[in-house]
Amino acid sequence: MDESALLIKKANCYISINLKDICSFEPTEYFGQPIAKVILADNKNLAPALYVPWSEEMALTQSKADG
To answer: Could you tell me the pTM of the whole model?
Structure first.
């Protein structure tokens, strides 16, 4: 696994999505919980968005790990 992938944990497993395959990444909230709306480039007109847990703290932690 390299640093060009977004890892998503779902039901005791992980899904890896290459960052180049992401068309749109939009932080938002769902019932007060921070999430991100992710739209994949291949499916932007065909499939609903993928919603994943997300927070600014996660973004900052990842930035520090990369830096």
So the answer is: 0.54
